[in-house]
Specification:
This protein is α+β, with helices and mostly antiparallel strands. The chain has a domain of 69 residues: Gyrase A, domain 2. It contains three helices and four strands; from the N terminus they run αββαββα. Strands 1-2-4-3 form a four-stranded antiparallel beta sheet, covered by helices on one side. A hairpin with a 2-residue loop joins β3 and β4. α2 packs antiparallel against α3. The longest helix has 18 residues. It is globular, with a radius of gyration of 13 Å.
Length: 100
């Protein structure tokens, strides 16, 4: 998938469909909370596989049951792109127990 920067209008539309996501420090941002460390780690593995398929890799950290995610496209000058929105949608599907 080819990425392109998103307009503010498109970003606002996407945020309406991505519960809990927001723009923070110029990046698409969300903190996920899971019941256990194992669930957080399992989600990270699944999300990591999807990200790798897209050749798009998140900035993320994990502390126990929390995973903090920041998405930005470095190759577009650190802008939020269509690729970031697509990866966020896949992450949401995985967090909800759906196939991305």
């Amino acid at each position: 998938m080819k990425s392109s920067p998103v307009t503010q209008v498109k970003l606002d539309e996407a945020l309406q469909l991505l519960p809990g996501w927001q723009v923070q420090d110029g990046k698409l941002h969300k903190e996920y909370r899971f019941a256990t460390f194992s669930q957080a780690l399992g989600w990270m593995m699944s999300a990591g596989v999807e990200a790798d398929k897209m050749d798009h890799h998140p900035e993320w950290t994990n502390v126990y049951n929390r995973v903090t995610v920041n998405l930005v496209t470095h190759s577009l000058g650190n802008q939020i792109s269509t690729l970031d929105i697509e990866l966020a949608k896949k992450m949401e599907a995985l967090a909800d127990g759906r196939k991305p």
